[in-house]
Amino acid sequence: MRTRWITLIGIAIATCSASLPAQTYPDKPIRLIVPQAPGSATDVFVRHFTPKWGEILGQPVVVENRAGAGAIIGTEAVAKSPPDGYTLLLGGSQTHAINKSLYTKLSYDPIADFTPVGRIGAQAMLLVTNASVPVKSVPEFLAYARSGKANLNYASSGNGSTAHLAGSLFSAEAGLKAQHVPYKAVAQGLSDLLSGEITMMFYPYSALQQHIQAGRLTVLAVATEQRASYLPQVPTMTEAGFPSMVLSPWFALYAPAGTPRRIVDTLYSALEQTMKDPDVARRLGSTGTDIWLAGPDEMARFGANEIARYRKIVELAGAKAD
Predict the structure, then answer these.
(1) What confidence score (pLDDT) does residue 20 get?
(2) Which of 127, 128, 141, 312 could cross-link 135 (Cys pair, CB 3.0–4.6 Å)?
(3) Cβ(159)–Cβ(322) under 8 Å?
């Protein structure tokens, strides 16, 4: 009788186990949606760590650029995806903080529609001009802008981007009437900045690096609290008299709302290992990226605070997603 019961129990356990879904994750490639165009600061950033991240996860991480509408198109696509851990978002300050205040009717909720996986890092915004503009500092630029000699405008990577917000805030605080010129891709904006069609631009170092080193662009200031280690000679916007100009776009990973915690923990654990890899850290550092890790719970608190912080900045700048 005892043997019979053991046999029956064994059959029952085997039957139940067969009916349960496999617990192995991931068992196929992961799609990471980047809601900005190829060649943007976000795109450059993500391609420095995804190969190693995929290696640690044991499955390739496939980057898919889905740009447009102030990063809304790609972000909304992830919000509507199955919460199975196979479609993720490389979001950040624009998608999960700025857009909430910039758009009166946002097609996704940055808190309710997503599960935070973790914060990764941040990049400082630089104020740059074409090297042909006869200025070397923010005070000189302001004098030049107010002289009437310049067709004053600024480029951004699209309406609602951090570059748009930074240019708008600087113009408002400096009392300048600068026209915003949004581009669908940062490469187009940079091309016009380099040709002199655009007067100024705020953008992270990663996409500007080669042009700065070649002497085609002049860096006037960095929008951080402290000077950047990779450009120690460049003053901060605070030093130039604009203490509210502290804008460092941050990057974070998000999964659709309802993604199981075990999947989130697997993703973040692999991410943490990735960022400790010396080669990954070196390559990210060379692009002006500060690794700034935070797990799912801390990221949730940080994200809510950033929505409130950027609401004040958007109001101060008077920026609109026109």
Answers:
(1) 33
(2) 141
(3) yes
First to last CA, the chain: 78
* Per-residue pLDDT reduced to its tens digit, 285-310: 888 888 989 999 999 999 999 999 88
How far is the C-alpha of 246 from the C-alpha of 268, rounded, in Å?
Answer: 28
- Give me the domains of the chain, ranges plus CATH numbers: 28-122+249-317 (3.40.190.150), 125-222 (3.40.190.10)
For the stretch 131-153, pLDDT in tens is: 999 999 999 999 999 988 778 99
What is the value of pTM for the model shown?
0.78
pLDDT of residue 264: 98
DSSP string, 147-173: TT-S--EEEESSTTSHHHHHHHHHHHH
Strand order in the sheet with 114-123: 61-65, 30-34, 87-92, 250-256, 114-123, 289-294
DSSP H or E segment with residue 121: strand 114-123
Please state whether beta strands 61-65 and 30-34 pair in parallel, antiparallel, or not at all (unpaired).
Answer: parallel
- The rounded Cα 285 to chain-centroid distance in angstroms is 15
The kind and range of the H/E element at 294 are strand 289-294
Give the pair of three-digit tokens for residue 245: 């100009």
